[in-house]
Fold each of these.
Amino acid sequence: MKKIENSTFFDRSAGVLATILCLSTLLWAGDVPLMFDLLIYTEQFLAFVLALALALVFLCIRFDRRQTILPPWYDICACMLSLVSAGYVVIVYPTLADEIALLPTNIVIVASILLVLIIESVRRVAGTALAVVVVVLIVYGFFGHLVPGQLAGLKVRDARLVTQLALDPSGILGTPLKIASIVVVIFLLLGKALSRSGGTEYFTNLSAAIMGRFRGGAAKISIVASALFGSISGSAVSNVATTGIVTIPLMRKAGFSPAAAGGIEAVASTGGQLLPPVMGAAAFLMAEFLEITYAEVVIAALVPAILYFIALFIQADLRAARDNVLGVSSKDRISSAWTVLRKGWIYPIPFAILIGGLFWLNLSPQKACLYATASLLVLAMIVGGETGRLHFKEALAIIPDAGRSALDIIIITAAAGLVIGALNITGLSFGLTQILVGLSEHSVLALLFVAALVSIILGMGMPTVGVYVLLATLVAPAMINIGLDKTAVHLFILYFGMMSMITPPIAIAAFAAAGLAKADPMKTGWEAMRFGWLAYVIPFVFVFSPGILMRGDWVSICLAVVGVWFGSVAVVGYMFQSLGPLTRLLCATIAVGMFFPSDLNSLVPFIKGTSAIAGVALVLWLRMHRIRHLSAKP
């Protein structure tokens, strides 16, 4: 009985902390402090959010990374220490700016405690890899001046290093944590409201109604549903778990192999984080790094994301034709798209408000999302959605749920700020940039391949936001210094950071899908790589041809669509009939030619492409003629 009472107490305590975290974000996004003439520094607010997030981590996640509600005594102590240390920063921050240069003992002690707490909390929520990176950079900060060569760091006083990392806006209380605390939590709230009000079922039913009757309809349902829900959820694994539980059994029943079903779902769910209007937390950070509006990031990312899903559709269709996979039976799908739209008419409204707020009213992302979330909740409670009316108590339950979901991203972005601070204070970022620029003197392509490989390796088992921040700090400056387009460079590292989700040996989105499909994880990972081939190619395309980033170069975009078609044919090995190695090689050659035209202003790429396409057509015609000739013989 005592154990149950303790469990209830800690569960309620965690709920209260999560509720306060989410509500404080809502109040800040709504400019409530300004309405009451309260002068609160942004860093004070960030320290307050960090205090709550650290306390929640130690209250809910155990040392062995299990999520349980009964914490041992040392986790309770760490929880209280988190509230006290970060809370102390909240209280004294207005006077901290004058005192921090003197490095008083109390400030150094608080900063040291915060560093230790953040490292352990990062290990618990994001795994050992990111925690090791953080520790290595902190150790480098202490001893980097002893490193020989170009990687030698600046000598920094120990006390100054600790305080600047923990308490300075260029460290933990910097841009990444600001984006997570002020923007991302609001979008997580929208995702939770959408899910709780029946939005997941709506997207799945709408996808089934539109795509279910076509060949390979189960795979196309998965692609559409994962794209729609994934662009809001902002998490590939969460998307797999939410939509995959419905779409993977459908694909298996239709005739796709378990590994193929899992691979399709993993690739589609991962692509949701690349698809506007939300694109996960990394897109908001990208806007800050590039010093452009979030709307500009969305516009630039739109065409590559559409090409990504076009490639998935083509492959699903060709694979279904090759393996004779039919559409979904009528009993497994909603009969009419109009019926689904009529029943769930409330769900497009928040998206219209979000997009209208971002692009026409020029609202900040958090305000546009705040209005969208409010409209959804009001409509869901008054009118009702796919699962009926949302009760007020259920709407209130969304707030702590969103607060708990924000833990990972808040802790990871705090660690990301720490990484940025360590790189800047020690000067390591400059040394790495010089080394990478030296590599590019021999070949720009070599630099891009190194950046892609580093992105995938760092991303294995590490959250996308952490990978993006690391690469944006370590690799992106070198690529920009040699003259590459800034937006293209940041999208390049974002794409390859995302591809770690489906790239073995640690493909967490593919492995999650494999569990639902009851398939071999590694086979599912390789299938996901095959289906997601375009994501490994398109980043090189928009680096060498930034015209496809909505820069008005429609020729590049049209050629890229042709390249997607022929590339997909080459991967699947089917176009009207099964293709041999030579024809597949010709199709791959056409795709490369379309993706990387030598000169868009000349007829050379057109002639090359037309000749290659004519070659493929000739091979297919000869093969079909031979088959007819043989079948006509007695």
Note: Residues 541 and 628 are 40 Å apart (CA to CA).
Amino acid sequence: MDHSHHQHQSAEHHDHDKHAGHSVAMFKDKFWLSLALTLPVLAYSEMIQQWLRFTPPTFPGSQYVPFVFSTIIFFYGGLVFIKSAIGELKARMPGMMTLISLAIITAYTYSVATQFFIDGEGFFWELATLVTIMLLGHWLEMASVAKAENALDAISELLPDKAEKIVNGKPQPVLVSALKVGDLVLIRPGSRIPVDGVIVDGSSSVDEAAITGESKPVSKSVNDGVVAGTGNQDGSLTVKVTKLGQDTALAGIMRLVAEAQTSKSNVQVLADKAAFYLTITAIATAIATFIFWLIAKDAGFALERSVTVLIIACPHALGLAIPLVVSISTALSARNGLLVRKRLALEAARKLDWVLFDKTGTLTKGEHGVTDIWATKGYTEEDVLHLAASLEQNSEHIVGKGIVRKAEEEHVHLDKVAHFKALPGLGVQGTLHGKDVFIAASYRYIQENKLTVPDEIAKAVKQAAKEGKTEVYLVTNNKVVGALGLADIVRTQSKQTIATLKNMGIKTGMITGDSEEVAAYVSKQLGLDHYFAEVKPEDKAAKVKQLQKNGQKVAMVGDGINDAPALTQADIGIAIGAGTDVAIKSADIILVKSDPRDVVKVINLSKATYRKMRQNLAWATGYNLFAIPLAAGVLYGEGIVLAPALGAVLMSVSTVVVAFNAQLLRRTKL
């Protein structure tokens, strides 16, 4: 944990002392037993009998019922709070446990004194109800925090314990922990994938929703990677293990979720401070109240008022206000394929001025696709695509692959090529339809063989080259009969993202190592506010700095490797497409899907989380402004006094309101 010193103390008080060794079940059991014991205390308390106008059966010693049962409640239910208070005081961070303990110790001591030694009304029924209500509040609090933290358990449950290792061609059940990198594993339809690996045989569709948040199954075949924790659907796969255990993407995600849950947020530090000051204020007010009423009235009334002040001021809701929102927003972000490594980054996202995107692989797909097809007389565009793709069908080259992909998308059938020959650095040639020799070649081939590009397509091809597109010419009998233009394809989601960010009033920019022409072309297509072209990887961080002038807040979105310095320099570093390399250390937030639209989700989550934190803080501290003076007896002259038990009810209500309000965050559509 990287806290500064004073934060460290508050972190300690929050993360360790408050619920050290406590469990949801323990509070639940203590609550129900205390509740059962509280009923006889109420029945045998004079004030309750007067209010409800009833008399319980009396028996020898029945006047001691409240004393005996309250004593059991105090030691069985109340000691939990006292132990925690000692922890708080040791950490020099008096907080809610200190207040609760002060209230119950004072109430119990005074009541025992009135029972045996002095005249006055005891507080046994108030003490019993107070402890019971406090236990209820804690049980609810811990249950809701536990529910939010289940995000981690849910993720770990995705990993099967056993796998089927292929030994001498036959599957054998083994423990996943016994597998080694390089082993072959059989994954049957409908089972979960236990390791990160590469498919060596079979094809299937895989449900990756748990890792990426993507609802549609992804089709996979030989040489495709698979990730531990995802679900195999309809086909059998043989997978070669590449990563195990702690190295898998899933383990990385779990580490990040855990890191995010423990990382402090600014608002949390504020809440800790508020709880501390509230404790000091409450103790001071309680002492002042006691002294005032001791002089103005009597010791019994003075004590009752000061105990009520202590009860009311318990900053319970305050302790719950932020942690609950944090854990729910962590779960919500993981469900949406956003991994938040630094809470402070998420908090800052609501105040962004600029979002700067890396081009290749972020705004674009990072793969060549056909953008234009030109044909000369006697040929159609489909002919050009059919002939070029037939020639390129066995090509390993990125451009050739792009042409074949386009033909597949358009359902253009491919012909067998005879006498195939690669022309290194220039293109490919082969005989099609049994007679004509066709060549798919680069502009360099045209120059070297002094061929001319027909007028009808020359202008369009020239323009495409200006925009940074790669051109491929189709040649037969030394005549150019058509051409294709290819470019790194802009993701469809990029357009949407830029438009949405603009509507939010956020400026958008792009940074790329590509030429000025390419950058200008992509920038215009997307409607960006600014672009940086021909930027070397090592200069990217300097460009981010340039945008940060005059205190502008900048988020950098990149794909990790050469973007690391820029991601670190930005106010928020967002890494995209981290399905494999989850450990991109320089990013604050990781988008598991390679979808730029998730940047908008980050900003929406930031706004929603902050809104809930503010509402909860306002509620948790605000009600004290009215309740503490009432408890101190400010309106006593008007006949309005707040009973200690009612104080406890009010305090618990505020806790429940805060818990309920935090749960509403789950409904947020990002």
Note: Residues 229 and 357 are 30 Å apart (CA to CA).
